[in-house]
Amino acid sequence: METIKERSDCELLQLVRGGDPNALAALYQRRQKGIYRFALQMSGSTSIAEDITQEVFLVLIHDNSNFDEARGSLNSFLLGVARNHVLRRLQRERFYSPLDANDSGAGDPILPQALIQNNGPLDELSRTETIESVRKAVLALPERYREVVVLCDLQELSYAETAAVLGCAVGTVRSRLHRGRSLLISKLRPAANEETAPATMNSTRCFA
Predict the structure, then answer these.
(1) What pLDDT is attached to residue 130?
(2) Rounded CA gap, 70 and 127, in Å?
(3) CATH code for the structural domain at 109-196
(4) Are 162 and 148 in contact (CB under 8 A)?
């Protein structure tokens, strides 16, 4: 017999609509981490990320009629709800809280893997860039570029899934991602240059 945890998202949602608390708990356990990470990477604030995660599941419980399986996955729908809440929150508060050094996102990749493959656009940069410097660079991106970098490179969603979250065409995702990555490189390169500068100065002194 199929257990609750083995059921698909849509099957769990049907059970949630029927008032099954175990299905809600299973769905929350499955999807809350991704929603939290997205909100954290978009806002830079653990408190905002926590609030948004709770709000997303309240929407799912009380107003889930907007979800249409034919238009995309439930995960894309939930991330889309999270995105709308994050953007409204940022527009209202217009600030980014500093990330805690020991927050739950510390396991994120130091650099988006899609950007550091061989001959990739960030290949020339030091691969020991700190998580903090990359997060600051991502947070400094304009929101329309930040969200595609977060979804495609940090959350590792496909172009189609990202398009479903953002409610735009796949081509729009591709163009924004290209621009977002370029902006990210420009923000990271000065930090990399600063790291190499002391070594260069020391080498020069040796030959003085």
Answers:
(1) 59
(2) 41
(3) 1.10.10.10
(4) yes
Distance, CA of 110 to CA of 23 (rounded, Å): 34
Contact 63, 109 (CB under 8 A): no
Neighbouring residues of 1: CB distance < 8 A, sequence distance ≥ 6: none
pLDDT score recorded for residue 78: 93
Provide the residue ranges of all domains of the chain, joining segments of one domain with +: 1-97, 109-196
Q: Is the dihedral of CA 125, 127, 130, 133 positive or negative?
A: positive
CA dist 33 and 198 (Å) reads 40
User: What distance in Å separates the CA atoms of residue 93 and residue 139, rounded to the nearest whole number?
Assistant: 15
User: Hey, what amino acid is at 63?
Assistant: D
Q: pTM score > 0.85 for this model? A: no
User: Whole-angstrom Cα distance, residue 18 to residue 103?
Assistant: 35
